[in-house]
Amino acid sequence: MAGAFLAIELSQRSGSVALRASHGAPADERDVPPSDDQADHLMHSIDVLFVRRGLGPRDLAAIAVSEGPGGFTGLRVACATALALADATGCRLVAVPSAVVAVRTAMRDGSWHADEGAAATVITASKGADAWRTVIRIEDGMPVESEAGLATPASGVVGALFVDGHADPAWAAAATEAVHAARWTAGACLEAGEWLLRRMGPLQPHGRLSPRYPRPPEAVTLWESRHGSGSPSG
Fold this sequence. Notes:
This protein is of the alpha/beta class. The protein has helices spanning 41-52, 72-89, 98-109, 169-174, 186-200, 218-227, and strands at residues 4-9, 15-20, 27-32, 60-66, 92-96, 119-127, 130-139, 142-151, 160-163, 179-181. It is globular, with a radius of gyration of 18 Å.
């Protein structure tokens, strides 16, 4: 693919961005500080990467976004920023399931060695008895989402298990292979996004990029409990 490829990973408390200036070039990564009221850390971090490589907006060809499940604010900021950049530059967008990012991160750092066809289960967004369960399969050397949805530990664990810090211990008890603490990096999102773009093509139209939430966001639930099911703007 001609042009620069950007990846945004803000699905968790710690975020990062990655940039590959052109096909075959090494990728640059940069941590994104937690959000605050003082500055737009995401856009600043992206700008640093572009300046470092001597690139401008017209060089941007595609953006991969870790779409969740994950933190409400981080996902909204990531998707809104990517959509704004796409509107301004005409670049393509790729949505990457955050569970895929977690597994690819482990493959990149060598903490999980996966053969073709290997399986893994990623547990995130735990709340009470259920959590978001994603089953991953390795295809052509890349983790691919096989199935995903809310589930309980009774649903079982397929292959290696990746869990965030909030998972019910019953998930680990159900595992028959190694249990890993899930980690997320923009470099992994970049590699998965490049693979998905080649395999699936970009999102069309751009508006289809949106955060993946396992449940209605708490802000929406509170609004509906106070004002009914109409939207806040309605």
